[in-house]
Amino acid sequence: MLQSPARAGITLGVQNGLRVEHLPEVARQAEALGYTELWSEEAGGGDAVTGLAAAAVTTRSVGLGTGIIPVFGRAPAVVAMEAASLQLLSGGRFRLGLGASTPTIATSWRGEAYERPLERLVEYVDVVRRLLAGEKVTHHGQVHLDGYRLQLPAPLPPVPPVYLAALGERALTLAGRHADGVILGNMTPRGVAQSVETVRNAAADSGRTPEAVDIIGRVTVLVEEDLDLARATVGRIAGFYLSTDVYRRSLTRQGFGAEVDRFAATWDGGERAAAVEQLSDEILNAFAVFGDEQTVTRGIARFREAGLQAPILYPIVQGATPADGDGAVERLVAVASRLRAS
């Protein structure tokens, strides 16, 4: 194994044929490879907390973070309890990642109206921080509590830092003003550099030390020498995201306005395969860095150069399914091992 002093994380979730029972072993092996942090995910499969709880007792030094818990569908008191438990269980290695999520997850899947998401996010952070600090909290706004205090047997060692997922300029500005860290995702290196500037400026404008805000980002990676196969795989991912207005706006801000407009006209006209086929490799790289190992390694380096303090890798293992059993762990770890020096 090649050792690197640079921070690097890996996604801990039920992707690539992994099942929940595999996550403790993935966490153990990722730590042994030298990964410095593990970040969970939560959308429609496994939750963000369970795998980290298992990782907390099978690892000793690696950082652990939720990447992310949506602020819709979970009361802040519940998240505070989960965060406190993970911080105690891990001996102080936990970071709480929160985000506004999407209308589909909030409303269609969790039954809450997706209203004023950024306002809710700011209130949520304030309430959770006060609860983790031991305060008795009453709050009536986007979230509601009446005289609740987190009942802990001992003080936290210390209160875990709060990270916010951010994509648009308003969310990035809020994160720079209020968060200990920012989680980026689905951006090109150019988009990362723009986002880093927005976050740093917002921190400075609010009287904070800009460099004190930790900026990390999820980087999906696909090591695949068959470029046609790789493009087809990443194209499916890109099509899924670019079918939504939020990612069309994001890629437009990153300088791909004309290409996004062509995609939208073709996709919305019903020619979905044609819409994906016309996407450039540069815009595809916002959704996954792909190619042979050397190409992927260089791609990860470009994200570091753009300002990511820790890329959180999300490896794609082609053809993996839950039927792979324990072999899914071996295949994921093999990819993670090849990329750790990036």
Automatic annotation (TrEMBL):
Q: Where is the Luciferase-like domain?
A: 18-309
InterPro entries, per the entry = F420-G6PD/mer, Luciferase-like_dom, Luciferase-like_sf
Listed A to Z, the keywords are: Oxidoreductase
Domain of life of the native organism: Bacteria
Give the matching SUPFAM superfamilies: Bacterial luciferase-like
Q: Name one Pfam family in it.
A: Bac_luciferase
Q: Which molecular function term from Gene Ontology is one that the record holds?
A: oxidoreductase activity, acting on paired donors, with incorporation or reduction of molecular oxygen
Q: Which PANTHER family match?
A: 5,10-METHYLENETETRAHYDROMETHANOPTERIN REDUCTASE, PTHR43244
Q: What name has this protein been given in UniProt?
A: Probable F420-dependent oxidoreductase, Rv3093c family
